[in-house]
């Protein structure tokens, strides 16, 4: 039978505030254990939460970024469960009245096609601490630095249909939140963690099948692998006439498999009730409008503009609009050189290639956007060939200066002086009489191929600096 | 609304409260009485009444996003039953 995969994702996004959501503790990554855990974070008796204004602003900004209904009055609730890295015995979260309601945004797949994915809601909550299960004389170690870190939990509709779409969704979300500046989106440091709800149903059936939830997957690659694995596991069960059990599973990256969490670890009865220590959060239209005024051009809008304004393909636009920094870099190159397509090529192939190899972010590029634009200008005005340009780029990367400086210092300027070129062409013709005879005896079709040999020879003599168009013209004239 | 004895066991487990076997009958009886009061409340006509999240007629004031806490680990850990390498130690959570 043909099965359709149905996926919904819950993403826990760490907000880029300075302090925790309910206390004035710092949230720097990698601090010594428990040095960023205050009396509030430790749930000392009598401690009360005070909500961080910046966390609210960032949540509203996200809501505006996905065109969502904003919760003008939202409420915090207690989610009750017992675990040692949750000292209060409850997590402060939002249940019935979240700050962000229904919204949607566009994702783009590898082939350039796009889809709208619905967002059910997004709500503010605090993170728990961290349990370390290495052996401390048969005990568990608890680090509460992370306890109270502000999170935005973003819940998607079950609109996702494949592992590839799930990855595209996460990438689009990553792009959006970094554009908005509300999170660093760093998956390796846990700033973006993902729970995957996944079920199968016979193709064409309207109702959903029984789902399994895979917890805490923390890289794009693992999301793809966990989903592929889970789809296979569920379709094997269904093909054998069995039933999928609704349960929570863990993805084990080392073994590349999902396995059930033991039932003891799953306590799905959270007994939510309104948090008495916090009052309802009420915001007004003016507050929302002020945040709306600060929204930058968002990735989807930028992508479409790149396609319209610069004539880029959907794929190129997607790559270049992925981050604000890269998009800004690209647009600076375009305005410096005036050719959007060549600029797109150079940024994607040469620049991103080198940056990836050196594991550098765009902001750390040794070649500035203006300088890269300057290099392209020299290709466009025929001062250098594309091939020489790559050498020049290498030199610029090594810090040898701007394109013009490198071209001058290395004497790479393309030879377009017709007298000098004519002399070279004459030499090549004189020194290769056998090839000339072959050429003269050949028919029109073959000649086109054979002329390449002479062009190559001239390029060799000129160390690649001869203007190829002029060489071609001269050869055509001389060989007759 | 009445409550069954085995539900008492489940609720006690969720709340991490130990109820001795011989007390279950009495606890069940008392909770059933409380639920009777809840039934009475449920009977009230609340059409047109907006759900209340807090009895105070006020809204949440927000705190500026500033780090105001300093590291007081030593003081906090001085009163903890067991610590090591800066971590609080608790009975093993998973086998």
Automatic annotation (TrEMBL), chain A:
**GO biological-process terms attached to the record:** glutaminyl-tRNAGln biosynthesis via transamidation; translation
A molecular function (GO) held by this record is:
asparaginyl-tRNA synthase (glutamine-hydrolyzing) activity
Q: Which InterPro entries does its entry note?
A: Asn/Gln-tRNA_amidoTrfase_suB/E, Asn/Gln-tRNA_Trfase_suB/E_cat, Asn/Gln_amidotransferase, Asn/Gln_tRNA_amidoTrase-B-like, GatB, GatB_C_1, GatB_Yqey_C_2, Gln-tRNA_amidoTrfase_suB_CS
Residue span, Asn/Gln amidotransferase domain: 328-479
Give the catalysed reaction(s), semicolon-separated.
L-aspartyl-tRNA(Asn) + L-glutamine + ATP + H2O = L-asparaginyl-tRNA(Asn) + L-glutamate + ADP + phosphate + 2 H(+); L-glutamyl-tRNA(Gln) + L-glutamine + ATP + H2O = L-glutaminyl-tRNA(Gln) + L-glutamate + ADP + phosphate + H(+)
Q: What UniProt keywords apply to this chain's record, in alphabetical order?
A: ATP-binding, Ligase, Nucleotide-binding, Protein biosynthesis, Transferase
Is Methyltransferase set as a keyword in this record?
A: no
User: What is the enzyme's class at the highest EC level?
Assistant: ligase
Q: Say if the entry is tagged with keyword Ligase.
A: yes
Q: Which family does it belong to?
A: Belongs to the GatB/GatE family. GatB subfamily.
Describe its function. Answer: Allows the formation of correctly charged Asn-tRNA(Asn) or Gln-tRNA(Gln) through the transamidation of misacylated Asp-tRNA(Asn) or Glu-tRNA(Gln) in organisms which lack either or both of asparaginyl-tRNA or glutaminyl-tRNA synthetases. The reaction takes place in the presence of glutamine and ATP through an activated phospho-Asp-tRNA(Asn) or phospho-Glu-tRNA(Gln).
Oligomeric state and interaction partners are given as: Heterotrimer of A, B and C subunits.
The family database entries (HAMAP family) matched by this protein are listed as: GatB
What's the protein called, per UniProt?
Aspartyl/glutamyl-tRNA(Asn/Gln) amidotransferase subunit B
Which gene holds the coding sequence for this protein? gatB
TrEMBL record, chain B:
Among its keywords, does the record have Signal?
Answer: no
Keyword set for this entry?
ATP-binding, Ligase, Nucleotide-binding, Protein biosynthesis, Transferase
Catalytic activity from the UniProt record: L-glutamyl-tRNA(Gln) + L-glutamine + ATP + H2O = L-glutaminyl-tRNA(Gln) + L-glutamate + ADP + phosphate + H(+); L-aspartyl-tRNA(Asn) + L-glutamine + ATP + H2O = L-asparaginyl-tRNA(Asn) + L-glutamate + ADP + phosphate + 2 H(+)
Q: Which GO terms describe its molecular function?
A: asparaginyl-tRNA synthase (glutamine-hydrolyzing) activity; ATP binding; glutaminyl-tRNA synthase (glutamine-hydrolyzing) activity; transferase activity
Q: Which Pfam family, giving just one, matches this sequence? A: GatC
The processes (GO biological process) annotated in the record are:
glutaminyl-tRNAGln biosynthesis via transamidation; regulation of translational fidelity; translation
- What SUPFAM superfamilies does the record tag this protein with? Glu-tRNAGln amidotransferase C subunit
Stored Gene3D superfamilies: Glu-tRNAGln amidotransferase C subunit, N-terminal domain
Show the InterPro entries listed in the entry: Asp/Glu-ADT_sf_sub_c, GatC
Q: Which sequence ranges are marked TM in the entry?
A: none
What's its EC? 6.3.5.-
What NCBIfam families does its record include?
gatC
Description of how the protein assembles with itself and partners: Heterotrimer of A, B and C subunits.
Q: How is this protein named in the record?
A: Aspartyl/glutamyl-tRNA(Asn/Gln) amidotransferase subunit C
Q: What is the lineage of its organism?
A: Bacteria, Pseudomonadati, Pseudomonadota, Gammaproteobacteria, Cellvibrionales
Q: Which gene encodes it?
A: gatC
């Amino acid at each position: 039978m043909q099965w359709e995969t149905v996926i919904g994702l819950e993403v826990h996004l760490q907000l880029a505030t300075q302090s925790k959501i309910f206390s004035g503790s710092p949230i720097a990554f990698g601090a010594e254990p428990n040095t960023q855990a205050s009396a509030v974070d430790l749930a000392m008796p009598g401690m009360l939460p005070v909500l961080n204004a910046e966390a609210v602003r960032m949540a509203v900004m996200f809501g505006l970024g996905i065109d969502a209904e904003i919760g003008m009055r939202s409420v915090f609730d207690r989610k009750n469960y017992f675990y040692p890295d949750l000292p209060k015995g409850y997590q402060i979260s939002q249940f019935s009245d979240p700050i962000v309601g229904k919204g949607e945004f566009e994702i783009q797949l590898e082939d350039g096609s796009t889809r709208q994915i619905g967002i059910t809601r997004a709500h503010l909550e605090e993170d728990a601490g961290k349990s370390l299960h290495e052996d401390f004389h048969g005990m568990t170690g608890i680090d509460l630095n992370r306890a109270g870190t502000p999170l935005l939990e973003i819940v998607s509709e079950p609109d996702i249909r494949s592992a590839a779409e799930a990855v595209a969704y996460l990438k689009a979300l990553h792009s959006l939140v970094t554009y908005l500046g509300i999170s660093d989106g760093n998956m390796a440091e846990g700033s973006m963690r993902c729970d995957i709800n996944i079920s199968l149903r016979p193709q064409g059936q309207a109702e959903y099948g029984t789902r399994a939830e895979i917890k805490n997957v923390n890289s794009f690659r693992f999301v793809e692998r966990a989903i592929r694995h889970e789809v296979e596991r569920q379709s094997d069960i269904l093909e054998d006439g069995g039933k999928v059990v609704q349960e929570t599973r863990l993805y084990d990256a080392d073994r590349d498999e999902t396995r059930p969490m033991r039932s003891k670890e799953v306590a799905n009865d959270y007994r939510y009730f309104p948090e008495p220590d916090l009052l309802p959060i009420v915001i007004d239209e003016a507050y929302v409008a002020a945040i709306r005024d600060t929204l930058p051009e968002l990735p989807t809008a930028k992508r479409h503009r790149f396609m319209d304004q610069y004539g880029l393909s959907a794929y190129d636009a997607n790559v270049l609009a992925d981050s604000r920094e890269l998009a800004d870099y690209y647009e600076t190159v375009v305005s410096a050189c005036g050719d959007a397509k060549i600029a797109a090529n150079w940024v994607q192939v040469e620049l991103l290639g080198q940056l990836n190899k050196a594991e550098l972010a765009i902001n750390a590029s040794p070649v500035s956007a203006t300088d890269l634009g300057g290099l392209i200008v020299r290709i466009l005005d025929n001062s250098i060939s594309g091939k020489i340009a790559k050498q020049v780029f290498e030199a610029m990367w090594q810090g040898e200066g701007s394109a013009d400086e490198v071209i001058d210092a290395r004497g790479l300027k393309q030879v377009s002086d017709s007298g000098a070129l004519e002399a070279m062409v004459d030499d090549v013709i004189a020194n290769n009489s056998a090839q000339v005879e072959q050429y003269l005896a050949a028919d029109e079709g073959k000649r086109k191929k054979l002329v390449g040999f002479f062009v190559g020879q001239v390029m060799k003599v000129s160390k690649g600096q001869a203007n190829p168009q002029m060489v071609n013209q001269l050869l055509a004239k001389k060989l007759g | 609304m009445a409550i069954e004895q085995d539900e008492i066991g489940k609720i006690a487990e969720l709340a991490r409260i130990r109820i001795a076997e011989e007390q279950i009958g009495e606890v069940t009886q008392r909770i059933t009485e409380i639920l009777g009061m809840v039934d009475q409340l449920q009977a009230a006509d609340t059409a047109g009444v907006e759900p209340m999240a807090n009895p105070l007629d006020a809204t949440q004031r927000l705190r500026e996003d500033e780090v105001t806490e300093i590291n007081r680990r030593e003081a906090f850990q001085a009163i903890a039953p067991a610590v090591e390498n800066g971590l609080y130690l608790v009975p093993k959570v998973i086998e």
